[in-house]
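Q: What would this complex look like in 3D?
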Amino acid sequence: MSRSRWLQFPWLTLFTRPRRVVLFFVSCFPAISMAFDFSNAEVTEVDGIYYIKFAAVVEAHPDYIRYVLADSEHIYRLSPSIIESEVLSPRGADDKRVRTRLLNCTPVFCLEIERVDAVRMLASGDFEAEIVPSLSEFKSGRATWKIVPMDGYSYMVYEAHLEPDFFIPPVVGKQMVIETLKDEFATTFVNIEKIARVNANKDRIAGMLLSDAGAKILRSPCAEYARASLQ
Amino acid sequence: MTPRGFCASAVAVLLLPACATQPVSFSYDVVPILQDRCIKCHAPPDGKGYRQTGLSMLTYESLMAGTDYGPVIIAGDSRRSILNMLVEGRAGKKQRMPHNETEALSQAQIETLKEWVNQGALDN
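A: Here is my prediction, written as structure tokens for the whole assembly.
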């Protein structure tokens, strides 16, 4: 059964399968647009698959960025679009599953999307998330977060392909989704940077050394997976 | 649309204001909930929640300022407000607020907070 819910103007229901539609006659709030200086911001769609790449210098140390990404219990801090989140019981040492429910709005319609990702921290310190199709409203999807040290800061690259298993209105809808994704990632990058800097500042005040931050990642909710990957 | 359908719609529109929910007051409705269930941890300088996240619920201003990581309330949008998400348990059992109490907020308390945020999170 589909868990997707369209929040949209009535005319759009003409194009959707009735069983998937729940109408909400509420106003939609457009995604909060935040400025972020991306060196690369690409979202394209080919044959129903969205290819996404965002890259930017983030003014925070890589270990603190990793800690934010590893802290799945607080994933809701990364974006106001996350309206539900939950760390599901792991199925194995290299498979932490994170469930999120997202509310994404274009100027014309809103979508609630359920997804479950199997999240792994790789030995390189990068992160990989793979959609679990049977628990998600995506046919497939994989994302990587690469974090490259850069003079005390980080060069962060997010690359993903996502194949939605829900209806997106043709032409205009796709363009709106692309623009909404750009806004969404700007917000997410801003929040990752902010949270990483706050955590770094707290550690500094507490007298923690930078090297402790790496250890902190290993005490994070993704500890056993990170440990397994880093060994 | 049939004439009957049109009439039904017109009546529904006319009745909407009468069916509107009552205004929720920050002072009279929300503050008692915060004082009863949240202030113990979210008050400076020693509240555990305050020390961990910087969220003080002592005043309207401090509540709206949110945590060190960002706001917890988006006025008019309880679905996206972290405060509502956490008390409703939408961020998982471990994150449900209040953390250290055996009981979650009552459904009435949850609804009050939701309505207050949806009505604009006013300092009223």
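A: To summarize the key features: Strands of chain A lie at 5-8, 40-46, 49-58, 82-92, 95-105, 109-121, 127-131, 138-150, 153-164. Chain A has one domain: 31-230.
Q: Very helpful, thank you.
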